[in-house]
């Protein structure tokens, strides 16, 4: 009796083990080779990296035949941006990255939800990382006079400036910090992608290799005028910086793009930084670090509303020779309400899904003509 009982129990245990093994094998076999394994990258900040299980060397497409550049795709998003983020990521995947599998880094002010992480892992087969930007990297520091900052915000609200009344913050992109985030530290180049944008054209080449081979530090697609009430004292501070640190101002810079009177006044031209392909080693170098520290100490990110677009643009235009800037005129891109649609033969060649006539380039609000005159 007891012998039979023991045998049956062993039989059941063996069966369970066998079934589990079969289930496990079946899972292994049915697994998409591009599925992600959470590869145990967790740091103190709770950042997480999921590494693609299979990293394949691209055999065709824009990245064929060579190793990927030292670069990442980068998105700043909130959990509430989930839909817009999925839309942007899938478009860039479709037009470019499905051939290349450049990794994605997502940064947020708070921890990403599992739903967000799952959704992003679902729209790309590249590695994805999710990080939180430490509060001290984006929030108004203690030394800022909050009464003064509030007065500045109230004034901008009266002038109808969108978001001006919100919690004091310094957008993480104009901060001197984002490129120091542990998830970005390993990389040199990034392509900034915002939620809710549109890409219209196939990308037939690798823009990161293009940047590297042509010694570019900053690439853009749209350029227009900044709204003056957000930056009333920015230019006087830029002039003070240039006088104090002439060693950082590059020969053959793009001052003529920023100023129509040799640097006396700012014409408000800037590169629209929600699209940005840039070299973080430029942000990490002493010129930009000194510039950021100088501007930060002036408090204009809080008392006014200095945005990342003019701050990045002014730095790129002044601290690098103009030959290191690049207009990605073959990239069709829209961030409502503005868009850039390629005008040349690449419109057809790259199957651009935008109306050629709908492009900001030569309208009154555009600074592209000034940019192009730099090279005439
Ligand atoms: C995730 O991918 C599956 C299969 O491709 C799809 O059916 C599903 O809708 C996707 N989920 C999300 C949130 O995109
Ligand atoms: C990528 O670039 C970063 C920043 O320049 C550098 O620290 C890192 O060593 C580079 N990685 C490789 C593999 O070259």
UniProtKB/TrEMBL annotation:
UniProt KW keywords: Transferase
Active site: 276 (nucleophile)
Gene3D superfamilies noted in UniProt: Spore Coat Polysaccharide Biosynthesis Protein SpsA, Chain A (3.90.550.10)
Tagged with keyword Hydrolase: no
Listed GO CC annotations: Golgi apparatus; membrane
Signal peptide: none
InterPro entries the record matches: Glyco_trans_15, Nucleotide-diphossugar_trans
GO biological process: cell wall mannoprotein biosynthetic process; protein N-linked glycosylation
SUPFAM superfamilies associated with the record: Nucleotide-diphospho-sugar transferases
Superkingdom, natural source: Eukaryota
Molecular function, one GO term: alpha-1,2-mannosyltransferase activity
Membership in a protein family: Belongs to the glycosyltransferase 15 family.
Name of this protein: Glycosyltransferase family 15 protein
Source organism of the structure: Mycena pura
